[in-house]
Amino acid sequence: xxxxxxxxxxxxQSAKLYSAPPSYQTMSPLSAVQRELIGQPANxxxxxxxxxxxxxxxxxxxxxxxxxxxxxxxxTAHILxxxxxxxxxxxxxxxxxxxxxxxxTLHLLMNLCKQDSGPAVIAVGAGSADEILTALRLRVxxxxxxxxxxxxxxxAVESVLAQRQATIRQAQLFHCISNELEQLxxxxxxxxxxxxxxxxxxxxxxxxxxxxTERHSVEWYGQAYAVTxxxxxxxxxxxxxxxxxxxxxxxxxxxxxxxxxEQEAKLLLKSHVRNLRRKFGxxxxxxxxxTGYILHxxxxxxxxx
Length: 305
What we know:
The chain is α/β, with parallel strands linked by helices. It contains 10 helices and 13 strands. A 6-stranded mixed sheet has the order 1-3-2-4-5-6, sandwiched between helices. Strands 7-8-9-10 form a 4-stranded antiparallel sheet, with helices on one face. Helix 6 links the parallel strand 5 and strand 6 (about 140-145). Helix 8 packs across helix 9 (about 250-255) and helix 9 crosses helix 10 (about 260-280).
């Protein structure tokens, strides 16, 4: 016997009810899967029809520990889904019969399938080629050809919920990765800014050596000395960390913008270091065998003081 939902449907439209009449809603104990999925039982919405009966809904959901609500038509389902988006328990799945002959119902189902934040849709139909093509165009989560039994619905629900769970986990993972990358980018930017700020100093003074980073000039005990661009770059790089050895390859990466082996970098720097020692003495640049070079502060309290 067809149930008379007209009075309740009117109440749903005016009072924005979120649950079916008590005799048509059942809540079973929580399961671990649903708790992990959204922190509460999965929330299903059935549209009653000749093939989707209250008994079938109850049998399909009883063992799966889910909330379920039964409504008389898609128009009422549309109201509940639209209002449920802002509730604490939005619907996860909509199970409805698909009828290509009813254009109004088909249009409502199409609108529900287009909602990114709405529930996934499981459609039930006669299994005709036209209906299957329509279901594909609507991009429903699953399609169940008639006749259906409760176990058919249960298997389809399990499959769609598993897909929904995987999508939620992927979204959460993507969000976490995005946050980590954003923090990493921020950290790299801070270090880069600090590095650039260090080089933005116009005058670097290391004992008697003075390097003007704006004019790219070098003074030694107050007297200007002519240096080549490579010699200037070498002094400026080593002046960042006076008294600390820098590897051959790191120096060449700065002075020549090249990535070389340690041996190749050592050979490339040898003549430039020799020229600098002729101009500023042997003690300014110390060779650390097998490692690289150190620029010393030659003031009384410097690194050789």
